[in-house]
Amino acid sequence: MYQRGIEMSIIETMKNTAFSSAVHTVLNYLEKDPETNFPKAMDIVDKVLPDGWYESQRAAFRRAIVEESNWYQLIQKVYQLDEGVRKTFFQNFIVNSALKGSAIQTEIKQRENCNIPWAILLDPTSACNLHCTGCWAAEYGSKLNLSLETIDRIIRQGKQMGTYMYIYTGGEPMVRKKDLLTLCKMHPDCEFLAFTNGTLIDDEFCREMLRVKNFVPAISLEGFEVANDGRRGEGVFQKVQDAMRLLKEHKLPFGISTCYTSANYADISSEKFFDMIVEAGAVFAWFFHYMPVGNEAVPELLPTPVQRKTVYKQIRKFRETKPIFSMDFQNDAEYVGGCIAGGRNYLHINAAGDVEPCVFIHYSNVNIHDCSLLDALKSPIFMAYHDAQPFNANMLRPCPMLENPEKLRTMVKRTGAKSTDLRSPEPVDHLCDKCEAYAEEWKPTAEELWGERKKGR
Ligand code: SF4
User: Which of 281, 373, 404, 446 could bond to 157 as cystine, CB 3.0-4.6 Å?
Assistant: First the structure.
């Protein structure tokens, strides 16, 4: 069994090496004259790779070129970005992370019999410079921080396991922007992304981003001006517009991150919203379903089945028509085989160092100040995730909390994981009770939509 694992991993490594070499050749070719060379790029790939390897990806790319679709427009948009930033992104994201990194991850996964993540999310600080409704992060400077040395140690350990993607959450990560830039310089082979409110992005920071080349912001937007400022504070929408304008002027890549609720789902899934962020220059948009996490989080903001279905359909529709790469965190599980937490694809480390399976699951057995990353991946709640994934065969019901609350309840109790909520520890029963009615109501719609998906294949 183990021998077969090694053989498979050698084959994977060979495929990755060949693909990596093809990617380098194609990227260099495209850089010379993107407009003219795009249509010829796939001929090179076909010559370099044997038939049958990465067939569906190659077909999708070829279709995008021939049809001059929204995907083709997006690729062209990427080629209008700063050349150094773009080349670094391709090197770090495709070659280091997706090819070299995934081969190492597969090998260690088999050897250690635990999950090894593609990305690590971490909170450099719990502090924030805004006071958003429903968010606990408060005055900046006075809260918990992961030191530069700790983050560096996490990254060094991560790279040994093939992890080259680091994603900052918070708090407001940009409160620590000097340290974030230092980390970019210390690890030029990694790609860094930050979920940020955008208000601390200025001209000087853009110039620093051009210098380090491996930092990409995802700016939070809750909808249009009234909804956004209603939650985040007056004037924040305008500050976000200013940040996007600056990033666009400097030819820097950025994305939008948005959380959909029963209150804003219609705005954020409207054509007007998509057009606004495309026009502003965003190259990706990340949609998150509201999670009732925390003692004070209210279930009333959970979208109804009709509302979630609307978001699901709208995002899929605009994926076919708008030049932006959109991800629907809760409804896209089919593309990644279900829940990606617990280190299967990612994990989260909060500003106190608690290692959590997911950014939304605040329960843990270990703290990174006392253990290695590998120890954390083998801790009881991470192994419970490893052993139980996927949590549901229906990929529109992927979550052990939101759509299958009895599963999280059982895992937390069985593993003895403790609440890591920094402000007010939330008992797992309190959290899961809030999701019970939602899970039941969503089930029939999830079955209907998943049935449609399976028929459409
Ligand atoms: S635990 Fe839930 S929210 Fe987190 S990755 Fe898994 S499915 Fe998504």
Answer: 373
- Domains of the chain (ranges; CATH) run 2-83 (no CATH), 114-457 (3.20.20.70)
Q: Which of 360, 382, 361 is nearest to 373 (CA)?
A: 382
Size of the chain, expressed as the number of residues it contains:
457
For 8, the token pair is 């498979």
| Contact status, residue 324 vs residue 284, Cβ threshold 8 Å | yes
**CA–CA separation, 92 vs 309, rounded Å?**
35
- Kindly give the interhelix angle for 236-249 and 225-232, rounded to the nearest 10 degrees: 110
Q: Tell me the CA–centroid distance for residue 319 and ligand 1, in Å.
A: 22
Q: For strand 363-364 and strand 119-122, is the pairing parallel, antiparallel, or unpaired?
A: unpaired
The answer, yes or no, to whether any atom of ligand 1 lies below 6 A from the CB of 361, is yes
Q: Which of 358, 394, 408 to mutate to test the pocket of ligand 1 (most atoms within 8 A of CB)?
A: 358
> pLDDT digits over 279-315, tens only?
999 999 999 999 999 999 999 999 999 999 999 999 9
In what helix (H) or strand (E) does residue 363 lie, and over which residues does it extend? strand 363-364
Determine the residue of 347, 361, 362, 392 to mutate for testing ligand 1's pocket, defined as the one with the most ligand atoms within 8 A of the Cβ atom.
361
